[in-house]
Design goal:
The complex is a heterodimer of chains A (284) and B (300).
Chain A: E1 22-31, E2 35-45, E3 50-54, H1 61-69, E4 77-86, E5 89-90, H2 96-102, E6 104-107, H3 119-125, H4 134-147, H5 149-153, H6 164-176, E7 182-186, H7 194-210, E8 214-219, H8 222-228, E9 231-236, E10 239-245, H9 246-251, H10 253-258, H11 273-283
Parallel strand pairs in A: 3-8, 3-9, 6-7, 7-8
Antiparallel strand pairs in A: 1-2, 1-4, 4-5, 9-10
Helix pairs in contact in A: 3-6
Chain B: H1 3-34, H2 41-55, H3 61-84, H4 92-114, E1 129-132, E2 141-144, H5 145-167, H6 169-179, H7 181-186, H8 191-217, H9 226-237, H10 242-262, H11 264-267, H12 271-286
Helix pairs in contact in B: 1-5, 1-6, 1-8, 1-9, 1-10, 2-3, 2-4, 2-8, 3-8, 5-6, 5-8, 9-10, 9-12, 10-12
Classes of the chains: A alpha/beta (284), B mainly alpha (300).
């Protein structure tokens, strides 16, 4: 069966009539003035939802997140077409710190803790833009520790010497200190053991439900991401190939075959590889 | 052995060391917060001292000091705008080259507007020596009062900086930027503002160093070369460490004087001029991160 590339979904990302928290409209991103990475990506995140951005290496997931958080310029990238709106406001020209003040924080791929700062100091840097009293910051710190009890135990260790999972928690906790309404989470599962990945995603779900934080997360681990997300977009070669409610995507035959490694008739032989390549090319 | 004399030499070395530390601090601050080795630190010292001494011709010391402070802050803003901002996210070596350019600019610009003569800087530092601890050692210990004041000024400056870096939110943000520019940006720390702060602080340190050195040697072009003396200090102490800059300075000050006095006669003297560099070279071979520098944390 050939599924139309842009399959119409029964459940749109943002329910009709409701305004999206974040909407990305046909953005094109060019690195170094020559390398075209995103070729018109559109997506929307409804308030209070978890949206997964899926796809293989180089599909444009990280670039999309960076375009939203405005960290592109540091990588010599630029949004050349399209628009990005957060709560109805055009944000593609704002500085990253202005965006953090509005409640959008990115947690970068590969954690990026400050290795020479203690875990607690790492968390405290997250509150930099807020300019609130020490007491209030202290309160927020306790809130983060409530979500990540493990961080409390390690609060005085240098972040560079903590484990990968603890660093990922530190990075998410640090973002939380800015009291965000939306977190852009890039590859939270990277390099982590399956149990830890599960734990991290569970925390993401908790944050979403209890603190009403919306998430846009880029993930290669399609299986886990679709389990926790409400809605998903599949990127390939800088374009959105498919979108739909997470549970529908998880059931989709093409997604199963290409991203979940589950083929209809059990294990496939190498002979079918040609077929795989052909279909994949057709899809992109 | 004459203990009084030995103590005197050591004390003299410590005082000289403090002066090296003052200049080294400027390097450390900028390196710590931006990973850039600021070649222009010496030029900033000269520029600050020149501004101070020429302004003092027209107004009392305090007013001139405050005005020079303002000039250094403006300079920091200008450097961020015109040099650092266009080069954001470039390799450290490119920023380093930019600071070399800045050195020539500041040397020339400073002497163009302030003049290039040798100026006497009199900030009321007492010149007369004092004799201490006469009851303990025969003949007492001869100390230069001026050096004592310089040490005191340096101590206050360092204590202030340490508090600033460890205890304030801005100081923490500076250390965060030093660790990881991008991550700092991602949590909303504005890099532009941070760089203005660091360069302004190191401009203030340059002013203090220029003031102390200038009142010792007179304000002249050679002031910008004392940066070369500070280089071995930061290699010894570690590029990222404020305490390292102090202790490195003290070690080099004392080592220099001791070796000059006790080894000098055997090799015909002049050790003072190369001692620091040889020590720095040895450190580069054995412990390249310096005494207190940060080791790279690598996870495997």
């Amino acid at each position: 069966m050939a599924l139309a590339a842009h399959a119409p979904s029964t459940a749109p990302a943002v329910p009709q009539g409701a305004a999206a928290l974040l909407s990305v409209n046909g953005i094109e991103v060019i690195y170094n003035h020559v390398i075209l990475v995103l070729k018109g990506v559109s997506l929307a995140v409804a308030e209070g939802s978890i949206v997964a951005l899926l796809g293989a290496n180089g599909a444009g997931k990280t670039t999309t997140l960076r375009a939203v958080s405005n960290l592109l310029r540091g990588e010599r990238g630029e949004v050349t077409k399209g628009s990005i709106e957060y709560r109805g406001e055009r944000v593609e020209r704002l500085s990253p710190s202005a965006l953090v003040k509005r409640g959008v924080v990115q947690v970068m791929e590969g954690r990026h803790c400050f290795p020479h700062l203690s875990v607690e100091e790492n968390l405290l840097t997250g509150a930099y833009t807020r300019g609130v009293s020490r007491a209030e910051v202290k309160q927020d710190l306790e809130r983060v520790y409530a979500f990540f009890p493990r961080l409390k135990e390690r609060s005085n260790s240098q972040a560079g010497y903590t484990s990968g999972g603890e660093q990922q928690m530190t990075a998410i906790g640090r973002a939380l200190m800015a009291r965000p309404q939306m977190i852009l989470l890039d590859e939270p599962s990277m390099g982590l053991a399956p149990q830890i990945v599960e734990e991290i995603f569970q925390i993401v779900k908790n944050l979403n439900e209890r603190e009403k934080v919306s998430f846009l997360l880029a993930e290669q681990n399609t299986m886990v991401a679709l389990r926790f997300a409400d809605f998903g977009y599949i990127l390939e070669n800088g374009r959105v190939m498919m979108e739909g409610a997470a549970h529908e995507l998880a059931q989709n035959e093409d997604v199963k075959e290409f991203y979940l490694g589950i083929a209809g008739e059990g294990r496939k032989s190498f002979r079918d590889f040609k077929h795989y390549k052909r279909r994949k090319r057709w899809l992109s | 052995m004459n203990w009084g004399f030995l103590l005197e030499v050591i004390l003299g070395g410590l005082m000289a060391g403090v002066l090296y530390s003052l200049v080294a601090l400027g390097f450390v601050l900028i390196y710590k917060a931006s990973g850039v080795f600021n070649f222009a630190q010496g030029a900033m010292v000269l520029f600050a001292a020149l501004s101070l001494v020429r302004l003092m011709e027209h107004m009392p010391f305090l007013a001139a000091f405050v005005l020079t402070l303002a000039i250094m802050v403006l300079l920091a803003i200008g450097i961020e705008r015109l040099v650092l901002r266009p080069l954001v996210n470039q390799a450290p070596i490119i920023l380093f080259m930019a600071t070399i350019g800045l050195t020539y600019f500041l040397d020339g610009f400073g002497q163009t507007i302030w003049g290039s003569d040798v100026y006497q800087l009199n900030i009321g530092m007492p010149k007369e020596p004092i004799i201490m601890a006469e009851s303990l050692v025969n003949g007492g210990i001869l100390v230069n009062k001026e050096d004592l004041y310089a040490a005191l000024i340096a101590a206050i400056l360092v204590a202030g900086l340490a508090l600033f870096f460890q205890k304030t939110a801005t100081g923490r943000a500076l250390r965060a930027v030093a660790d990881d520019h991008q991550a700092a940006q991602s949590v909303g720390i504005p890099l532009n503002r941070i760089w203005v702060i660091v360069w302004a602080v190191s401009g203030i340190v340059a002013l203090v160093a220029g003031m102390v050195w200038g009142s010792k040697l007179g304000v002249q072009f050679s002031l910008s070369l004392i940066a070369l003396k500070a280089l071995p200090v930061v290699i010894l102490g570690g590029f990222e460490s404020v305490p390292g800059a102090i202790i490195g300075g003290l070690i080099i000050g004392v080592g220099e004087k001791l070796s000059e006095v006790y080894l000098g006669p055997y090799v015909g003297g002049g050790i003072e001029y190369w001692f620091a560099y040889v020590l720095a070279l040895l450190f580069l071979l054995v412990r390249p991160e310096g005494l207190f520098g940060e080791k790279h944390i690598d996870r495997v």
